Amino acid sequence: MAAQKSDLTIISGQKNAGKTKLCLRLVEKLQQDSIQVNGLVSPGLYQEGHKVGILVRDIATGEEKPMAVFDPGWDPEVPEREWRFNMGAVEWGNECLIKAAHSDVLIIDELGFLEMEQNRGWTAGLGLLDSGDYKHALIVIRPDLLETACKRWKPNHFVAVQENFDTEELVDKICDYLRESA
């Protein structure tokens, strides 16, 4: 019996376009439809309308850990860095991704500079995507890293998220596709 081909969708958009919001709604809808969905989402923490932190949430369990805090200039060697990462939360997230193998739907929000340029961060997610050990994967990639991602993997679909998009319409389209290809 031939191995089933994995299906990869890249979700991309500028900072604050709504990529994580889309992922959160997809998780909710897929779980309501009893579709097995695993992976990580990274919702922001806001105070008075300003993003001050980032959480990491294991989709399978709903458990969350604080992953990063906004702390411009914290790194004297690279003063333009704005986010200070909690490496314990990153390790925990990688453990969650290892358990996400064999998923019907895998979501990774997001793969960024750490992963794509430094092979750090969600390294277990990189390995999982490289292995194709999932049925469908939806991964969030910033536009400036699309070329790198497309060289590494051959995505089947792209979803471009722009500010003020209709979240529910897009969620319905993606979920319809996932149900039809199940």
UniProtKB/TrEMBL annotation:
Matches recorded under SUPFAM superfamilies: P-loop containing nucleoside triphosphate hydrolases
Keywords: Hydrolase
Coiled coil: none
A molecular-function term among this protein's GO annotations: ribonucleoside triphosphate phosphatase activity
InterPro entries: Nuc-triphosphatase_THEP1 (IPR004948), P-loop_NTPase (IPR027417)
Listed Pfam families: NTPase_1
Protein name, UniProt field: NTP hydrolase family protein
